[in-house]
User: What shape does this take?
Amino acid sequence: MRPVITTVLVEHPWLTTVGLVASVALGPLVGWWLVGRPRLTRWLAAASLAPVVVLTLAPTSRSLDVGCVAEWSLPTLGAVELVANVVLFVPPVLLLGVATGRPLLVLLGASATSGLIELVQALAPQLGRSCSTDDWLSNTLGAVLGAALAASALALSRLTTGARSRETDRH
Assistant: This one.
């Protein structure tokens, strides 16, 4: 039996593309709006980690052999699972990057966390989760995108704050 989210994504593959496009289009603006709201940003960042944990570490009914599949496929819009793995890491990295003001550090931590998740999946076959280097690569690409969006939001915030202070100085 397939998990519900997998079934939904297979039946509606366009959802992953919409999620990716929405992240790119709205991410910098949402991040910019959240810069002055650290408490809300931290809360949303914590909430955005829940899907990562559930979708990568919650046990399934499958039984798998121990091991990890080494493959290196770049996600394409038709590859639902790979794009879903990209989209999964965008919100937490964007939000944590804005919350900390250090998107590059968050990116490195997210890539390491994805590697750790794959290691747990490889060493705990009772979870029924498959370990794949493709998953790590897709998660890391999502983290790169999330960090770029966070950096954009922080730069936008600096620009608008600077413009406001220059306008205030003139009056």
Q: What stands out?
A: The mean pLDDT is 89. Residues 133-170 form the longest helix (38 residues).
